Amino acid sequence: MANGEENDLLTKLLSPPSQINHKSDPKKRRFRRCRSAPLAEFVPGEINGTDDAQTAQGSESFLDQIHPSFKRVAIYLIFYLSIGTICFYFVRDQIKGDKIDGVLDSAYFTIVTMSTVGYGDLVPNGTASKLLSCAFVFSGMVIVCLIVSKGADYLVEKQEILLIKAMHMREKYGTIDVLKEMETNKVRYKCFVSMAFLIVLVLAGTVFLVTIEKLDVVDAFYCVCSTITTLGYGDKSFSTKAGRVFAIFWILTSTICLAQFLCYIAELNTESRQKDLVKNVLTKKMTNVDLEAADVDENGIVGAAEFIIYKLKEMGKINQEEITLLLQEFDNLDVDHSGTLSTCDLMLAQSDQARP
């Protein structure tokens, strides 16, 4: 779109009314009551603890009720573990170390390789086993990243509602209140939930190593810490059959949980810096230079929309390229070139797109 057309469109969009009534200006009310798309991830029935669609859900199977992202990651994980167990079982003679059972050792070695723990109690000792280990360690790290970004994040979000309601048990917290609280402190609640999971996993691993592997408390805690941080020194590891069965599930869960927790810590730090930037922008006094910069249509007057766009640009939430793209989209939808959108405009735009 040419600069002249863009300024023309901005003039129509952003020009303020000639007479402003501060008490009953409908344009201001529209800005304050602007609605966005509803949150699709959370169902009110889940937040309230009720089942509004009980009849419909009764006909669905358990697998149909699993979140698609979690289901997809679970399929990838099962496929990886199955292929890894089969491959390492066929080259089990090229793996040396403290062996207990062929299939169990193969599954255990796959998990240790995937999580990059590498205790050293089982190590590849042949060409085929070494090449397979190289392939599975890289593909395993990809699977872990998928789990961290999809499956683990979904599980943590499901627990946020319970955490918020528990923190406000004596208050009347409805569906909208919970959603607002989650949106405001989303990352902080994720940190709390993932940290709680991590503490539970550390305690579970320590207790198991003390009771089953017969390690003392210090050695058990040392083994847990070296495992979940993927150090894997190798002087302490799971050496019994029951221990390796437990390790298959525990190592995968604990290492992913720690990675998720560290991601949330970094996200929380970034969000905190962003909030500080927003606070500085909102508290900064408006100068003539700012007024001139905010005057997009260069008519000497800054309207509400121009002011909002300028502040959003200062906060780093939007840039000029994105504004231009939005204006282009508006221009494409504004079929009658009136400077406003109506139902007729949308119908005409859709009919034009449907033509071959």
How would you describe this structure to a colleague?
This protein is an all-alpha fold and 356 residues long. The chain has 15 helices and two strands. The longest helix is centred in the last third of the chain and has 43 residues, at 241-283. The chain starts with a helix and ends with a helix. The model is unreliable at 13-24 and 37-59 (pLDDT under 50).
Low-confidence stretches: 13-24, 37-59
What is the CA-atom radius of gyration, in angstroms? 29 Å
Q: What percent of the residues sit in helical stretches (DSSP H or I)?
A: 55-70%
What's the pLDDT, averaged over the residues?
A: 75
How far apart the termini lie comes to 24 Å
The assigned structural class equals: mainly alpha
- How do the helices and strands follow one another from N- to C-terminus? HHHHHEHEHHHHHHHHH
Broad shape: elongated
Number of strands: 2
Itemize the secondary structure elements and their pairings.
Elements: H1 3-14, H2 26-32, H3 44-48, H4 54-58, H5 68-90, E1 95-97, H6 102-114, E2 122-124, H7 127-167, H8 175-184, H9 186-211, H10 217-228, H11 241-283, H12 288-294, H13 304-314, H14 320-333, H15 343-354
Helix pairs in contact: 5-6, 5-7, 6-11, 7-8, 7-9, 7-11, 9-10, 9-11
